[in-house]
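Appendix B. Raw example, untouched.
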Amino acid sequence: MRIHIEQLRIEAIIGILPEERSAPQKISLDLTGEYEYDGENFIDYANVCRYCEEILVEGQFGLIEDALVKLSENLSRDFPSLRRLDISISKPDIMKNCTVRVSESWRFF
C-alpha cells in the first residue's frame, strides 16, 4: 500500500541565509510511503501531516537536506510499518523565477 501526501504547506525557518533565519518562510512537502497493510495495520495520513509539520517547524533547519534526513529517521522509527519513503521539500518563494526542491528516497527492511 502507498500513502501520498502532496503539497503539505508549512511555514518554517529553513535555510542558511540571514533573511531565512529571521522569519518563517513557505515550504511545501511531498511524501510517498510504502507500507504493509493487513486489514488493520494502516498509516493515518493526518498523523503523518501533523508529525512532519512539527518536525519542520521545531527543527529550524539550516539545510533542506538535514530536514529530509531528520524526517526519514523519525518517520521510520515512529511508523515502523514503512518500507519505503520518498520525500521532497520545496521552497516556492525563495527564487523569483523558479521553485527549488530537494528530494531523497529511502528503503527500510
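End of appendix B.
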